[in-house]
Amino acid sequence: MRVTFATQAVPGRPNEDFVGATPDAIVLLDGAGTPPGSESGCVHGVTWYARSLGSTLLAGLAQDGKPLTEILAEGIKAVASLHDFVCDLTHPGSPSATVVMLRRTADTLDFLVLADSVLILDVIGTAEPMVVCDDREAQVGAAHRTAMDALASGSPGHVSAHRAYVETLRDHRNRDGGFWVAAVDPLAAEQALTGTVPAARVRAAALLSDGASRLVDRFRLATWRQTLDLLDDSGPEELIRRVREAERSDPDGSRWPRGKAHDDATAVSCHI
């Protein structure tokens, strides 16, 4: 596989995304940030969590034949053990992350997607790509974001409403009827979307954190097919540049209401 990627943090903040690759595997995580004024129970923070889990998963992918859900469950458990006696892992705001894993074996591509980062597979012979995204958080959140979306991004009211929104969603995290992310409970791995496709049928793949996928799924400024073409022609940096351009054109969220005016953005382009 030939892999290129770009990642860009929100200015003035550490990057809470993680991306890593080996010759046969790719891992992308998007850490769930803690809003100002909200507690997490963890002294390490979201960036530490995303990097610790991401590097652990990347090492686990070297174990040929092990199911991706098992690798993820073991990774969640291993990282929890790193801060179990230092941090309050029972806190509802304990650091968490989305996960996308892609692994090539001799003849197949195995994938796993947990939470709202996106995997796009450019399948040969089909007009539209295969898009894998776990949208359960968005479905849950839709019922709780009206007050936040009505306020201008960056205003004191919006900051407060965003914090309340995030804290409300914590009550639905990693439980039946809610949504699932990598955090403390290894059983969350069983809730991931998984699949296997013949490697010979896939021309290319893209992995996007939701800060990069918003060009399509929130801003509606491109299709998934156009995104694959953009990555192929101009690379991940151009995709992120276009996301930032759109964000700057709507600083108060009046056109595209959103929790974060800017978000960490990571894009990976992979040619199989």
TrEMBL record:
- Please give the InterPro entries that the UniProt record associates with this protein: PPM-type_phosphatase-like_dom
Disordered: where is this region? 245-272
Q: Which residues form the PPM-type phosphatase domain?
A: 12-234
Return the Basic and acidic residues bias intervals: 245-265
The protein here is known as PPM-type phosphatase domain-containing protein
